[in-house]
Amino acid sequence: MSNIVHDFTTDIPVWKPYVAPLDLAEASAEQLEALKITPSNTKVSDYVLVLAHDVETLKHRSPLFNAVMYNRGGLSRAEREIGAVGASIVNRCIYCAAVHASRYNQLTKDEDVIAAIFSDGADAEIDPRLKAILTFAVKLSKCPSDANTADMAALVEAGLGKDEILDLILSTSLFGWANRLMHTLGEPITE
Amino acid sequence: MAENEDVIAAIAGIEPGSAFAEVVAGRADIMALTQQTHDGALTPENPGGLSHAERAALAWRIAKINDHKGFEDHFEAMLEKAGVPDNAARLADIWFDGGSDLRTKALIRHVDLVAHAPKEATRRDIELLQEAGIADADIVRLSELVAFVSYQIRVAAGLQLMRELA
After folding, report:
1. A59: which of A34, A152, A158, B38 fits an S-S bond (Cβ 3.0–4.6 Å)?
2. Contact B73, B60 (CB under 8 A)
3. Kind plus residue range of the DSSP H or E element containing A15
4. Contacts with A, B 35-74, CB within 8 Å
5. pLDDT in single tens digits along all 166 residues of chain B
């Protein structure tokens, strides 16, 4: 018996695809290469197996994702997660929100910020610097983007350097991409 | 097919040698991977069931939905480069819903939904594509196109705001 998760949570659900994941027995050499399948690594998530149908984007996606979220310098890892969470609440990607909210909590050893964001969205009452980051992420994630020069000025006012603002733009935008795959190609369930 | 260009740098007006270019250069690896993904999403070597012209036209449509002039011009130019077959060009017409062609109608409906309001998407939206005869692999290709272009437009929009700070 499985249930679809409709509310934001930090308990990471299982992601169940609506389309058939790639059958590894039918994978091309290029797909196996992009999946980094080796005799010692044959475990690939359903999500990545779904994306393997479009190998010409998948092969760049993993290095790009890791660079945006984990590269040295610039915005802290935790604050990049707020960019990801801001996008994920706009796009209501329950799965992405759960993964990145829980990562924020692990990195900061704090649960109050995420609890406030899950309950009040962009209106969450949080520390001014985080608030400026969340506001910008939420507005950039709208379609069309609603972010403006005042939101950008608020980031500077909150003390973000240009390198940090660049990382926020990238992590927020990255989840405009990830949410549009994760939330539309499958659903979050509890088993 | 790897074109030696950086679409975002051109659209966001990042002038080589400027202080702004120096900030962006701190993430040169990400900007290069973004350009490579653009080429993989728009002009893949194996386009499957979505031609280069259809991809350019749908990307132009996504740029219109995002009200982003720089990317509208970019994808319009890519469509012209792809030879503009009549049936593909119509995909970019925001007032065209696909008419009586089931496949075209399903493609347009899904692109509009995922570009504009992904939060509204459900299992049923994928079933509608499947019922229109679109293979699962092409559904993933279509989804990556919408998702990637939505990302790229946001990166450029953010950089354009950032540029005004300098």
Report:
1. A34
2. no
3. strand A14-17
4. 36-37, 40-41, 44-46, 48, 65-68
5. 444 589 999 999 999 999 999 999 999 999 999 999 999 999 999 999 999 999 999 999 999 999 999 999 999 999 999 987 767 899 999 999 999 999 999 999 999 999 999 999 999 999 999 999 999 999 999 999 999 999 999 999 999 999 988 5
ipTM rounded to 2 decimals: 0.96
Q: Residue A34: CA atoms inside 13 Å, Cβ hemisphere, count? A: 22
Domains delineated in chain B? 7-163 (1.20.1290.10)
**A169 closest CA partner among A191, A130, A131, A141:** A141
DSSP helix/strand/coil, B51: coil
